[in-house]
Amino acid sequence: MSLFDLTGRVAVITGSSRGIGRAIAERMAEQGARVVISSRKAGPCEEVAEAINAGHGEARAIAIPANISAKEDLQRLVDETLAAFGRIDILVCNAATNPYYGPMGGIEDDQFRKILENNVIANHWLIQMAAPQMIERRDGAIIIVSSIGGLKGSSIIGAYNVSKAADFQLARNLAVEFGRHNIRVNCIAPGLIQTDFARALWENPDTLKHITATTPLQRIGQPDEIAGAAVFLASAAGTYVTGQAIVVDGGTTIA
Length: 255
Fold this sequence. Notes:
Radius of gyration: 17 Å
Number of domains: 1
Order of helices and strands: EHEHEHEHEHEHHHE
CATH superfamily: NAD(P)-binding Rossmann-like Domain
Distance between the termini: 38 Å
Largest sheet: 7 strands, parallel
Strand content: 5-15%
Low-confidence stretches: none
CATH class: Alpha Beta
Shape: globular
Strand order of the largest sheet: 3-2-1-4-5-6-7
C-alpha cells in the first residue's frame, strides 16, 4: 500500500469550492478519501462534488455549505458529515478572509476583528467540534492552511499576517494537547499562489515582478502544488509530523 493512500478516510476541507481548497479535495479524493466540499455557497460546492464523483465513478464527494463566521454552520458541517460518513479522519481548515489591503494604521476595527475571527477563532471552533470523535478513535490529522505571511512583515497585508502567525501557534498548542490521543496538527504555509483569493497581489505587475524576482524558482505557485503537502500530512507518510509549519513557497522565504 502506498504511503500516500487515503482509502477509507473521510476529509472535511473548508473553502474547497475553488483554489487551494479545491485542489486539496481533488487530490485527497484521487488517493481514495471521501471528501466533504464546503464553502459559503451551495452551488459551487455541489459543482465541485459532482466533478469529483464524475471522475471517480462513485459517491466520493458530498457538498455541505457552511459559513466559517457562523458557529452554528460549522457545527452543522460536522454533524452532517458524521451523519453521512460516520467519521472525520482529516480536517483541513483552509477557508480564510482578508477584507483589507493597506497599512495597519488604516484598518477599521470591524475589518481587523473579522480577519481574526474567521482566520483563527473559526479554526479553533471547527477543530474543537471535530476533535472528540478523533480522540475516541485515537486517530486524526488536522491541517491549517496558514501563509508565509505569518513569518514576515508587510505594509499591505499586516493584519492578515497577524492572523496567520496565530494559526502557527494554534497548531503548535493543539499538537501538544492532542498528541497523546494520536492526533496530529500541522500548518501548511503557502507563498503566493495563483488563486482568486490572492488576485490583488499577483495581478499587480509591480508586486508580481518583485515576488518572482526574489523567489528562487522565479514564479508563483499553483493550487495543486499545495495539495501534495496536504496529502503528505494527512497520510501514513506524515504520521510522525506534528506541530509543524510546512513552507511551500518556491523558496521566497530563504532568498
